[in-house]
Design brief:
The complex is a heterodimer of chains A (about 210) and B (about 240). By secondary structure, chain A is α/β, with parallel strands linked by helices. Chain A is built from seven helices and seven strands. In chain B, strand 1 and strand 2 form a beta hairpin. Classes of the chains: A alpha/beta (about 210), B alpha+beta (about 240).
């Protein structure tokens, strides 16, 4: 649960530049959206003109707001992971992200603490699972008409017993809290990474929750 | 008034006899995180964030409740203390249900502040999700036990400053919680004067004005010290 050793995955292979020369490779950046409201991604888009600077030095290789690729690629340098881990799809993607990414960032309070998605853990029964209780609350108890539990195996991902922060599922290299983290905070965290440096995550401007 | 001298992180300070180690750290210009302590209220040493090392002692001492004495040498920011402080703050977050995103105190919360102060960017401890309740039976205020860290500031301000003694701590261990009156709904406690001092001193969003919604609770934790100075020393805000 402590800061992991990020040395295991291979660094990205250099890619030829447009002219075919072995130029300094662009950073391969990904963003992932698990159980969250997409607010962190909206905040990312709030980077406005910095996105142009970012595009000059980084390729967005996977992102719900940046590219249409459906499969998480190999050799990703940096990945921002928004959202908690709430269902089997979240879990599978989180593990793939860890395998294929050099530096994984827990992006926003849901990824860091489970935050609002984690509230269903309060419905846990004696075995510690809120999986059934939250479905019954949402689809049966609160239904106006046609109360029924969703059942579509292979289509609707099954819920995990508990909603977990990302670092309880995979090793995380950097924590970027905030609900959402402001665009400024995201920029202060990303900009050093582009220069191959680690950002200083200290002070209210960088790590205050909420 | 006699004066004693002691050292804080190697720096000599002179302070009046009878004050706490906390005053010694302040005299030395050292900032240590505080959560349960509030100037104007009796210290209780509940939160353990102000623990310091005292040379010659193998126990850590809470600065707020330990009397300073002549010749003491204390250390406030050793690696061990920094580790313990961060761990203590992580445990506060893991122990309760602190969802900053929709809390009345978001942005004005002393628990958020100390998290920043100790450098906490995540909790290494799994969140406990305890079953706690909200008591909104009072006409003006409410208490959300999910956000309570048991600092007992409300208990002390109501007893020591207001003199109503509405609040106490009930049960034991992880079941400890703040009780109103004889463990009644707050709204049924006749001793409550509706003064709102408990709202003012609550470091988190646990006790709040009902009209406040997300991030709207303002902090007035300086009020007990002002009232105490007014009563004891006849020094008023405008003097």
């Amino acid at each position: 649960m402590t800061t992991p050793d990020p040395s295991t995955p291979e660094p990205a292979a250099p890619e030829p530049s447009a002219a075919g020369l072995p130029d300094r490779p662009k950073l391969r950046l990904a963003t992932v959206w698990l159980a969250g409201c997409s607010g962190c991604h909206m905040s990312f888009l709030d980077l406005d003109e910095f996105l142009f600077d970012l595009a000059a030095v980084a390729d967005v290789v996977f992102s719900p707001v940046g590219i249409d690729t459906k499969t998480y690629p190999e050799n990703v340098d940096v990945c921002l992971v928004e959202g908690a881990v709430a269902n089997v799809d979240n879990l599978e993607l989180a593990r793939i992200v860890r395998q294929r990414t050099r530096l994984v960032i827990s992006f926003g309070d849901c990824a860091v603490t489970a935050n609002v998605p984690g509230l269903r853990n309060l419905l846990a029964s004696a075995d510690g699972s809120s999986q059934q209780a939250v479905l019954e609350r949402g689809y049966l108890e609160l239904a106006d008409t046609g109360a029924q539990l969703p059942f579509a195996p292979g289509i609707v991902p099954e819920l995990l017993p508990r909603v977990l922060p990302l670092h309880e599922v995979i090793a995380v290299d950097l924590f970027l809290p905030g609900c959402p983290p402001s665009a400024q905070r995201i920029k202060e965290a990303i900009a050093p990474l582009l220069a191959g440096e680690r950002p200083v995550m200290e002070g209210a401007e960088m790590i205050r929750f909420g | 008034m006699s004066v004693i001298t002691l050292s804080v992180n190697g720096k000599e300070v002179a302070i009046p006899e009878g004050v706490s180690l906390l005053e010694a750290t302040r005299a030395a210009g050292v900032d240590i995180p505080l959560l349960c302590h509030l100037d104007g209220l009796e210290p209780v040493g509940a939160c353990r964030l102000c623990l310091v090392e005292v040379e010659g002692s193998n126990r850590l001492m809470p600065a707020c409740t330990t009397a300073a004495s002549e010749g003491m040498a204390i250390h406030t920011h050793t690696h061990q203390l920094l580790d313990y402080r961060r761990m203590a703050v992580e445990l506060f977050f893991a122990e309760g249900n602190h969802i900053c995103a929709f809390c009345v105190a978001n942005g004005n919360c002393e628990l958020q502040n100390v998290a920043v102060q100790v450098g906490m960017d995540h909790s290494r401890f799994p969140y406990q999700y305890p079953q706690r309740v909200v008591d909104a039976s009072h006409p003006l205020f409410a208490i959300d036990h999910n956000r309570c860290i048991l600092c007992t500031r409300c208990v002390r301000v109501c007893d020591e400053i207001e003199g109503a003694h509405v609040w106490d701590v009930g049960s034991r261990g992880s079941h400890c919680h703040i009780v109103a009156g004889l463990d009644q709904p707050w709204g049924e406690v006749e001793a409550c004067t509706n003064c709102g001092k408990c709202v003012d001193v609550c470091p988190t969003g646990a006790i709040f004005h009902k009209e406040d919604t997300t991030a709207e609770k303002l902090r007035h934790s300086d009020r007990p010290a002002l009232l105490k100075a007014a009563r004891d020393e006849h020094v008023w805000r405008n003097q």
